[in-house]
Structure formats: structure tokens, C-alpha cells
Specification:
80% helix; mainly alpha; 9 helices; 0% strand; single chain
């Protein structure tokens, strides 16, 4: 492990941008594989639960409580869960969408790696030399966390959802609707986690290793964002959007 760490540090010192790009691409690709696996297991659980509800309802109708026609059996079996069609092949094993993995990995490679590298380097120079805050002081760390959450966090989310829309072959109007649907829920949920992560990052981790530290958590974050993007119009998303939309209208 120590040998691998020394090798990474050597690569980082020799080719910093390339190293950040490759490591970010790999991490985001693995994150999307994990996201697809979690989504598959979640949907499988929901469908199994819906199947139990559908079969119990069908048995109720079959006994003649509501009617004697056999049509309700197939109707309820297909629409047992929130009006969506159930398929009888839900027991199939997970099939990874490698096109999606490649697109997500390319996002990490082409955006997170290079932009993240220059962002953390530039942010440190700006606060250290322009604002002249003492390194590792409360003002130094707090300003870094605030600027990272206000500038880089929203930008990262906006680029991710827009890029994934184009990568999946969607048109601009549909991407715009997807961004409206996903941006606020992601920003709210991540806003409660990333500041804590970044406090430790900016306080204890050297600047050259800060993106590596972030990429470790991006393994979870990319999983979360990929999973979030696949949730479409989930009720909890609509609730968050409506709550913050109501606050904006009243303000």
C-alpha cells in the first residue's frame, strides 16, 4: 500500500493534471456501476412488494367480491404499483449499462479531474495571497468551504445533469426539465454533507492531495448523483422542489 501511495505521489508530482483526470475518471465510473446496482436492488424490492399487493388484490377479485370477470387479474398484475406496468422478468440479473458508465467516467475524466485540480490550486492561492488569511485558521478554512459550496458545488451539479442529459441523447428542452427536477434536491442534500467533508479537507489535507481526498468521497457522491438522476419524478424530489419553490415565491 505504501508503495502504491509513493507511486501515486510521484505521478502527481510529475503529471498532476493527467493523474487527477485518470483517477477521477476511474472513480466516477466505479461510482456509476455502484449506482446502477443500488437502483436495481431498490426497484427489485419495490416490484416484489408491488407483486405481493397485486396478487392479494387479484385473489380478492377472483373470489367474486368485486366482479366475476377475469380481466382484473391481468390489469392489476400490470399496474400493481403506482400505475406502472410490472414485468414478469423482474428476477433477471443486473445488466450494467456500460454506455452510461463510460459517459459518467468521461465526466470525471474531462471535468472533475482538470477543473477540480485548478479549482483547489487557485482557491488556495487566492485566499492565501489575495485575502492574506493565515493558513489553517478559522477564517481561512471557513472562506474556502463557503466559496467551494457557493461556486464549485452548484457548477459541478449543473454540468453533471446537463452533460448526462446530452450523453443519453436527450434534447435541450428535456434536459432543462431534468435539471429543474434534479438540481435543487441534489443541492439541498449535498449541502448538508459536503461542508463537513470540506472542513476536514481544507484544514488537514495538503493542497496537492485535496482533490484525491474529494475523489474518495466522490465515489459515494457519483453513486448518489447517478442514483438521483435515475429516480426521475420521485415524490421526495417533488416535495423538496415545492418547499424551496414556495420559499422563493414568498421572499
Amino acid at each position: 500500500m505504501s508503495r502504491l501511495w509513493r507511486w501515486y505521489q510521484n505521478c502527481l508530482a510529475t503529471h498532476p493534471v493527467k493523474t487527477q483526470m485518470i483517477s477521477s475518471g476511474l472513480i466516477w465510473g466505479f461510482g456509476d456501476i455502484a449506482a446502477q446496482s443500488i437502483t436495481h436492488l431498490t426497484l427489485k424490492g419495490h416490484r416484489q412488494f408491488a407483486g405481493l399487493r397485486g396478487r392479494s388484490c387479484c385473489r380478492f377479485l377472483w373470489r367474486g367480491k368485486v366482479g366475476s370477470s377475469r380481466k382484473p387479474f391481468s390489469f392489476l398484475l400490470r399496474r400493481a404499483h403506482s400505475g406502472s406496468y410490472m414485468h414478469l422478468d423482474d428476477r433477471k440479473e443486473l445488466r450494467i449499462n456500460w454506455k452510461r458508465v463510460a459517459a459518467t467516467s468521461l465526466f470525471g475524466f474531462g471535468f472533475v479531474g482538470p477543473v477540480g485540480h485548478f479549482w483547489y490550486e487557485g482557491l488556495d492561492r487566492f485566499i492565501r495571497h489575495r485575502l492574506k488569511f493565515q493558513p489553517n485558521s478559522t477564517r481561512f478554512v471557513g472562506t474556502k468551504v463557503a466559496l467551494d459550496g457557493i461556486i464549485f458545488g452548484p457548477l459541478d451539479l449543473l454540468v453533471f445533469f446537463s452533460y448526462m442529459g446530452f450523453a443519453n441523447g436527450k434534447m435541450a428542452p428535456q434536459i432543462k426539465e431534468d435539471v429543474k427536477r434534479d438540481f435543487l434536491p441534489a443541492l439541498v442534500l449535498e449541502g448538508g454533507i459536503w461542508p463537513i467533508v470540506q472542513v476536514a479537507n481544507f484544514r488537514y489535507v495538503p493542497v496537492r492531495n485535496q482533490l484525491l481526498y474529494v475523489n474518495f468521497f466522490c465515489l459515494l457522491d457519483s453513486c448518489f448523483l447517478s442514483w438521483l438522476e435515475q429516480q426521475e419524478d420521485a415524490p421526495w424530489k417533488q416535495w423538496i422542489t415545492s418547499q424551496f419553490g414556495a420559499k422563493e415565491k414568498t421572499s
